[in-house]
Amino acid sequence: MGQKTHPIGFRLGIVHDWQSKWYASKRDYANFLREDLEIKRYIKNRYRVAGVSKVIIERIASKVKVRIYSARPGIIIGRKGAEVEQLKKKLEEITQGKEITIAVDEIRIPELDAQLVAEDIAMQIERRVSHRRVMKRAIDNAIKAGAKGVKIQVKGRLGGADLARAEWFLVGRMPLQTLRANIDYGYARASTKYSIIGVKVWIYKGDVLKGGKEEILQKIEEDLMKVSKEV
User: Fold this and answer.
1) Which end of the chain lies in a sparser environment, N or C, as judged by fewer CB atoms within 10 Å?
2) Phi, psi values for residue 202, rounded to 5°
3) What are the pLDDT digits (tens) for 158-167?
4) Closest by Cα among 121, 116, 119, 85 to 102
């Protein structure tokens, strides 16, 4: 069997950053982790229609900063910020009275967010839309939005088949073993009449070069290309 690793966890500290940013002693670690999981679960369930991609939590002393990335931030903010105030009170209950700060960021191109794409595919499968049609449409939209590679896999009793199977489509490049490759990954589940179908999405957005030897080599390659064209 192949040994697989999480595409985002594999690149933490290189291309991607942590979604929980804090340090705690052994005494507080379990409580902080439980609070983070409850906060993320509550926000995802409450704002299911808002297209919440990820929730980043930062802690400084007794202060907790929650940053929500959503495709429809207006639903979370509410009229004159009323919804945010209600959310703030609920999070204060979860964190047992800690000071909460909430920031909502808009995802301008949801077609390039792997988690949102996976959830959209799962939602359409639950509505009995053909999984092949949904997968191909999602890949086309991502490529048009600027993705350099897209891979989508669905697994389960597809179409009500007796035996579970996996189907996947890949368009473009998907360098899973390249650390500098900016690959976004998302997972969602579709609860159908027959069983649960898992949806996995990989979106390759290009390489991230942060100075040093790699940037110098890229610049040399660009200069050589210019010289060759002039010759």
Assistant:
1) N
2) -115, 130
3) 988 899 999 9
4) 85
Backbone torsions φ then ψ of 88, nearest 5 degrees: -60, -40
Amino acid at 219: K
H-run or E-run covering 58? strand 52-60
Q: CB-side exposure of 200: number of CA atoms within 13 Å?
A: 13
Dihedral angle computed from the Cα positions of residues 55, 189, 171 and 113, in that order, rounded to the nearest 10 degrees: -20
How many other CB atoms are found less than 10 A from the CB of residue 206? 14
Strand order in 181-191's β-sheet? 165-172, 149-156, 196-207, 181-191
In 3D space, the residue among 203, 71, 198 whose CA is nearest the CA of residue 138 turns out to be 203
pLDDT digits (tens, 9 = 90+) for 127-153: 999 999 999 999 999 999 999 999 999
Q: What percent of the chain has pLDDT over 70?
A: 90
- The pLDDT of residue 80 is 85
Which residues touch 157 (CB under 8 Å, ≥6 apart)?
163, 164, 192, 194, 195, 197
Rounded mean pLDDT, 30-52: 93
Taking a C-beta distance cutoff of 8 angstroms, is the pair 168, 136 a contact? no
Residue 141: DSSP 8-state: H
- In this prediction, residues 16-28 reach a mean pLDDT of 91
